Amino acid sequence: MAIPCPESLGGRAPMGNPSLEPVLFVLWHPDCLEGAVLAEQIYSWFRPGSGLGPKVIFRSVIDWSENADLLVPLAPNQSAMVIVLIDENMVIDARWRRWLDTLVQQVGSWTDDPKLLLLPVALNNSALGFPPLRHLNFIRPAPAPRDAEPIQFIYQAWLTNERVRSLIRQLTDALCRAMGASNEKTRIFISHAKEDPSRPGAGGTVPARAIRDYIRSETQLEAFYDENDLPFAQDFAEDLHESLADADAMIAVQTERYASRPWCRYEFSSFRRPVRLHRRSNLFGLRPTLVVEAMAAMHHSRCIPEFGNSPLIGWDADRPRDSAELAVITALRNLFLTHVHRRQMAGMPDLGTSVSVLKLSWLPDLSTLSHRNLGELNAQVVVHPGNTMSSIESNILRAHRWRDVNFIGMADYDPATAMVGWQAPWPRGVAWSMSLEGSDEILCKGMGRQHIEEMVGRVTGLMLRRGCTLYYGGNWTDWDGSKGASTDRHAPYRNMLHMLLQSSASEQRWPERSSAASSQSQSSNNGDSGASPPVINHLAWPHQVERRRQADWVNLCEVVPLSLEASGLPKAAKTDDAMYRAIAMSAMRRRQLDAAFNQVRAEVPAVSARIAMHGKLRGYSGFAPGLLEECMLSWQAGHSLWLLGGFGGMTKWIVDFLLCHPGGPENLRDAPSASDWLRAQHPPLRDLEHRLARSLFNSTSDQSGAFQTWPLWSLDDLMAHLSECRQAVQTVGLAQALRTDLTDADTQILMQTSDPDTVVRLLNLSLTNLAASAHV
């Protein structure tokens, strides 16, 4: 029996303009203690990882001195979905009231405007009288218990916190409605195997009924459940076909009996059939599926290929209602993401008629790629949602019939580099310069810690796919980011090295011995998996890392500690002395660029480029901001220098200095003025400089006990080098002075943008050009 394929997702017209890509804005008052935490939970839920989901922009810390617009300008093909978290602080703040009142007046009949959806959230009862929005029906999360601790920065708080869970549930329902059908209910098909009386617990009736009952009693959705929806004494196959064709999403309850039931497998495989979304289009869609794993303890079954890479959640038999709720809102979230990815793909440019491009609105897997609808297209490039899949995932697909295909994530797709961008290797060393703390500066740009961590992962994946080795000078302190949970928006970011290693883990490669060609290809992309680690970590004295932790990451990271002697310090140096620690940090930064010193295997490439992002203007430990010293060392060494100034911090200050004209601000006008300004930002620096001047450290006398053989740059020395760099920019242009191999215009965009997509696109283009230049 052939099951007819629906010609669109759910077979119904979407609400509003189906070509508009949604952008989520989350607004809260900076004095709202739980605002940042709830915003991060919203981000985690609607951006589940790997770059999937819509863009999410935070708006909280606002510079009201300017004509503030809390919604950044949108592209013509984008729409705004604005989530406003309202508490008493926002209610009494006249600036927020005026801005929201202006927004509502500007859009007029906003409920009919496909460019805007406003979702007010009442964090307490004081929000209900908020003048600009009091005519709207508020989303009301469950109240927090009176004696409850503030919601902390914890992962997946919706699993344990009723307040967060109720907020996520209502937002998911509202956003899914906005993206789905305008009149008809969202339909969820529940696929399960019946209980076997002789083997209690082997079937899935109990979880399936709990999911059905939750849908019908707690939501405005519609559930297909065969016991209730297949008429008696009728040909059930035809009714089943119609129900499958009409469903928007499927929840499959995986139990011991599911894999052995032909109809269960038939339902699932038929539902996950790729469908061409428009006639003669290269865009294919797939309706979302969710697998609920409800195997009884100590029972066994087998996996089935039809599941592909469907999301999977576990069933808690002791908490059936909570499990059913999580399954339903996850299925709804996946349906929302399906609509988002479909709209994102529809607006992407093609590569012309000479290249065959296949656009998928889901993450590809062997099960769906084997379908004849896709196999007949002979695609050269497959574009999928989110970030480009890891090397491990793409190698699995290439091991079958997709060997010569470029798999590119939509977030990284660029017509200029789609055919060569991920193939041309650039096996060089790239040093990361980055330090982050909770910062109003980051929030002012519409981002939080998750935005930054996601971008670090994207850039890391790009560099490793191009065969680069990453260098990072930093310690393993606060390894898991657990300095203490906090509701403070200034809470620390996760350890930068941890972010690099987590991102590198999915890019590990294994040796291919099937053919000389594959071996050669593997060699050109960072070689054998055991040849060299993707990350080199330099540790300044006196920091150390225990051997067990090094062993845990031995395939990903090689630790190069800098000893007391190698730092040029006297034997009597004290570990808690700020001056000696500052000297050791400068020594580590120099040794990082010294190929002869690095105690790593010979095949590891030396540093040839540096990425600089954020960095501390104050609160650092050293004789100058560390990022400034690292950038000047690389510039003097002739390295490519990618300055990501759009994310603030020391990097932005360097960019502003390089682009400053003679009549610019005083702190950027010349090197002496800039040095004085930087000293004023970090008062402890003057004491360190005075101590160093009084010490015998720079003396060649044996009485000092020092054996330093390298020059120690002061802040004034670094500013002199930065002035030389600015002179080079004014003489030969940005691209040539910083050796980016981009145009001057693109180099300036890279230096000033805060858009992660633009950063990755230009870095990829720069790597492509550098790789081409290396072979000329």
UniProtKB/TrEMBL annotation:
Domain TIR: start-end pairs: 188-276
Residue ranges with Low complexity bias: 514-532
Gene3D superfamilies: Toll/interleukin-1 receptor homology (TIR) domain (3.40.50.10140)
Entries under InterPro entries matching the protein: Cyt_B5_heme-BS, LD_cluster2, TIR_dom, Toll_tir_struct_dom_sf
A GO MF label: heme binding
Region (Disordered): 508-536
One GO biological process term: signal transduction
Protein name: TIR domain-containing protein
